[in-house]
Amino acid sequence: MPRPRNDNFLRALYRQPVTRIPLWLMRQAGRYLPEYCETRKRAGDFLALCKSADLACEVTLQPLARYDLDAAILFSDILTVPDAMGLGLYFETGEGPRFLRPLREELAINDLCAPDPYDRLAYVLDATRAIRKALDNSVPLIGFAGSPYTLACYMVEGGGSKDFRHIKTMLYARPDLLHRILDVTSQAVTAYLNAQIENGAQAVMLFDTWGGSLSGAAYREFSLAYMRKIVAGLHKEREGEKIPAILFTKGGGLWLESIAESGCDAVGLDWTVDLGDARRRVGDKVVLQGNLDPNVLFAPPEIIAREAEKILASYQAAGDDMTGLVFNLGHGISQFTPPEHVCALLKAVHAYPTR
Ligand code: CP3
Fold first, then answer.
1. At 93, is the pLDDT very low, low, confident or very high (cuts 50, 70, 90)?
2. Is the CB of 73 under 6 A from ligand 1?
3. Which letter, b or e, does each residue of 59-77 get, where b requires 16 or more Cβ atoms within 10 Å of its Cβ?
4. Is 113 exposed, middle or buried (0-12, 13-18, 19+ CB in 10 A)?
5. pLDDT (0 to 100) of residue 355
6. Strand pairing of 237-238 and 72-73?
7. Is a pLDDT exceeding 90 seen at residue 92?
8. Is 25 in the pocket of ligand 1 (CB under 6 A)?
């Protein structure tokens, strides 16, 4: 299988020289794009969009048609995995994701099993193949899944939460039950990511959105340990190309050294960490991905450029060259972002010298 024509994203992850610093955006296909809203309307709702391989492929490509991005990310959601485990995912308009059957009872937790992705998640694999075909080796395709702890937060809470009361009660009062959920979910995520790789994903990323809500000790025991297990179980290469794994724990900056020891190839950082400090802390151990505050994109174009350059200069000052960096936002792009502001970011990052 030939490398993508623009392989700067993979080159950065392999720590090879790049012709420009690669850039993609978390949630790059989403509601800030009018064409996304139009396709979602045609699908009926968000879940129908995820479950149609054709429409998921269409929205994956929308940000790439508009912008000179260096990677595509599979359009789906992290909550498809608990849905496939039988929890009954639905979206209440304006209220985010919900589960019909939250996991609170010991019996239900004991009955939990890891679904075969080729059966219960075949629609994601169909989308993955359709996207690879449509990309025609222009840029690499990123596959993804939620971290076991982040998925467990939604599974136990039954949806989003401000205080994580139910899962934290379980964590402290019945850690055995939470470990059982995390163990089954890790098996599910490992098989799911491997299936994405088998169907064309060229790098994979674990989104640990809520690991940062834990104490350091609980993070290691309930989040990082399971991500480490997943990374160890992933296919390391396909068709002669290495498949890099990226771990992103929002709010995990304090634990960067431990995350870098997990076996992953790259660590995603939110905006609370200085990228130069992060580079000094991990050296050549892992590649870094990040970390512009998504809210910077509300500011005028010249300020967006200046803020991006500050991050790039900080990274540069902490090493010899610009290898080992993938530029991204520190979290998902806001639905209120003016689409034309993304152009200012791309221009600034792509103009930055690579040596
Ligand atoms: O990056 C991409 O473009 C790929 C698509 C992607 C989506 N969700 C699409 C989506 C990815 C990588 C995700 C991951 C995801 N989903 C995470 C982890 C990353 C993060 O943001 O922290 C989480 C926690 C979820 C769960 C989830 N899905 C929530 C909380 C919501 C509601 C958010 C909201 O703003 O209402 C979703 C829905 C969702 N997933 C949307 C998109 C584009 C918006 C749905 C819509 O069109 O109405």
1. confident
2. yes
3. bbbbbbeebebbbbbbbbb
4. exposed
5. 82
6. unpaired
7. no
8. no
pLDDT at 154 over 90: yes
pLDDT for 1 beyond 80: no
- What phi and psi values does residue 124 have, to the nearest 5 degrees? -70, -40
Distance CA 273, CA 121 (A): 35
Determine the average pLDDT of the residues in 186-214.
98
For residues 236 and 263, the answer to whether their CB atoms sit within 8 Å is no
> Which of 78, 150, 154, 227 most suits a substitution to test ligand 1, by most atoms within 8 Å of the C-beta?
78
Tokens for 158, please give them: 């039954």
What's the gap between Cα 310 and its chain centre? 24
Q: Is the pLDDT of residue 109 over 80?
A: yes
pLDDT class of 121 with cuts at 50, 70, 90: very high
Dist. CA 240 → ligand 1 center (Å): 32
Minimal-distance CA residue to ligand 1 atom 5: 75
